[in-house]
Design a protein that fits this description.
Order of helices and strands: EHEEHHEHEHHEHEHHEHEHEHEHEHEHHH
Strand content: 5-15%
Strand order of the largest sheet: 3-2-1-4-5-6-7
Shape: globular
Helix content: 40-55%
Distance between the termini: 27 Å
Number of strands: 13
Bound molecules: uridine-5'-diphosphate-xylopyranose
Number of domains: 2
Radius of gyration: 22 Å
Number of helices: 17
CATH architecture of the largest domain: 3-Layer(aba) Sandwich
Length: 454
């Protein structure tokens, strides 16, 4: 990409980076995008990864891959609550990671390790081996500042989550409401808090903090992080999927046949529906989504990920649905999402607002129907609809009448048109940030300088 052509390291020995992604799709994607970007600048890359959800080495022939055991049993990755998993993985990966890294060091120098911020155990390993450590945060800067503000409010007795109704606003952090708080409704609030505190503590000794966002979108939050949360080097380098040379990181097989189907649709008419890699639903929700889409009369491309319906590998769609939608609807198990969003026929994205999906939608200029599922997604959905105003939020769960109405508002009404204009401007903004001289471009320069100083 033209934006990054000029940054190239000049060194007699190629600096060696060890990367540790967290084994979820939404974390693997930005980490491998970052690694690909740094490799294109001249760094050598070793990816240490868990056995579970391991990336496919054949997609990255220039990287060295080193698997480590993670102690998870078959299927545990999908049955365990993700926060509990983060806790388990931090316990089980420390010794194997130390062992693998020590062996790498006996073969030659390692310049620095770059780890997902959720892997807080790496602080102890880096200290023990006296290696510089940089973190990648895979969510939005606004989520990081929200978490910090919530902690302060709770410490000072100014916020009681249990007393408020879900729609009660939190005046100190507008436009968020009680129901937008990350972790609200979690089955294990103690583990959620513990993991959050561990991540926060381990952040302090990191020598750099990379975020997959851009100044043109989250400058206020980035300033706050610089001031209050992570005073050392902060590098806002997003959107990484646009900045980095293209690579395939998908853990599931992407069904490219949908591209030919999209080719046959009229411009900006298709609503793309996908709720990411973790969200799961009841069968009842699936039925409401199906009828909402059918009754909206809009063309749709809908990803129903295997395992995403509670206790079912796959479920039959309601009778009559196929008949009503076969001329204008397509269902697939996993999409080449970035290509789908970039397709001229796609005019809207009904999303769970995972941070990657949100960035991908913004950076392809696609308006969103926001329907968050957990954690950071609630904050992102609220910001997307009420601050950045590039989407509208579907409140109150899944109801076929509300869905039908919301899809039409987004796809054919004036409201959707206005959102499209705003999201197109944001797309331009993102592209300016990664172009030479832009803020993300300069952050990359800063990161390269920092690593070369180790
Ligand atoms: C979750 C969080 O909510 C997210 O904010 C956090 O940073 C990581 O974990 P997830 O549910 O995986 O994320 O969603 P998202 O962050 O949107 O990542 C999903 C990725 O999978 C995207 O990069 C998307 O392009 C890709 N994807 C999704 C596909 O390739 N095909 C699909 O059909 C759907």
């Amino acid at each position: 990409m033209e934006a990054s052509r000029d940054i190239q390291i000049q060194a007699t020995k190629v600096p060696h980076l060890v990367i540790l992604p967290f084994p979820f799709q939404g974390h693997i994607n930005p980490m491998l995008q970052l690694a690909t970007l740094l490799h294109s600048k001249g760094f050598s890359i070793t990816v240490i990864h868990t056995h579970s959800n391991s990336p496919n080495p054949s997609n990255f022939p220039n990287f060295n891959f080193e698997p480590i055991p993670d102690g998870l049993s078959d299927g545990q990755l999908w049955t365990e609550d993700p926060i509990t998993l983060a806790f388990i993985l931090n316990e089980s990966c420390q010794a194997p990671f130390l062992d693998r890294l020590s062996r790498l060091l006996s073969d030659g120098p390692v310049t620095c390790i770059i780890t997902d911020e959720l892997f807080y155990f790496t602080e102890a390993v880096a200290d023990q081996l006296k290696l510089p450590r940089i973190l990648l945060g895979t969510s939005s800067a606004t989520c990081a500042t929200t978490m910090a503000s919530l902690k302060l409010l709770q410490q000072n007795g100014l916020l009681s989550i249990t007393d408020g109704q879900p729609n009660t606003p939190i005046p100190e952090i507008p436009p968020l409401r009680i129901k937008d708080i990350p972790g609200i409704g979690t089955t294990d609030p103690d583990t959620f808090e513990q993991v959050g505190a561990n991540v926060h503590n381990a952040m302090r000794s990191a020598l750099g903090y990379i975020m997959n966002t851009f100044d043109g979108l989250e400058s206020t939050a980035l300033v706050k992080i610089r001031q209050d949360i992570h005073p050392v080097s902060l590098f806002a380098m997003g959107p990484l999927y646009k900045f980095s040379p293209r690579s395939s990181n998908s853990l599931l097989t992407q069904d490219y046949s949908c591209m030919a189907w999209l080719d046959k649709q009229a411009p900006q008419t298709v609503i793309y529906v996908s709720f990411g890699s973790l969200a799961s639903f009841d069968k009842r929700d699936l039925v409401e989504i199906a009828w909402g889409l059918a009754n909206s009369d809009q063309p749709f491309l809908w990803v129903v990920r295997p395992g995403s319906i509670h206790s079912h590998d796959w479920v039959e769609l309601p009778e009559g649905f196929e008949e009503k939608t076969q001329k204008r609807g397509r269902i697939i198990k996993w999409a080449p999402q970035q290509e789908v969003l970039a397709h001229p026929s796609v005019g809207g994205f009904w999303t769970h607002n995972g941070w990657n999906s949100t960035l991908e939608s913004m950076c392809e200029g696609v308006p969103m129907l926001c329907c968050p599922y957990l954690w950071d997604q609630m904050v992102i959905a609220r910001y997307a609809s009420h601050v950045w105003r590039v989407g509208m939020q579907l409140e109150n769960g899944f109801d076929r009448i509300e869905i039908e109405w919301a899809v039409r508002r987004l796809m054919v009404e004036i409201e959707g048109k206005e959102i499209r204009e705003r999201v197109s401007a944001l797309k331009e903004n993102a592209m300016r940030c990664i172009a030479k001289g832009g803020s993300s471009y300069e952050s990359l320069e800063g990161l390269v300088d920092l690593i070369m100083s180790f």
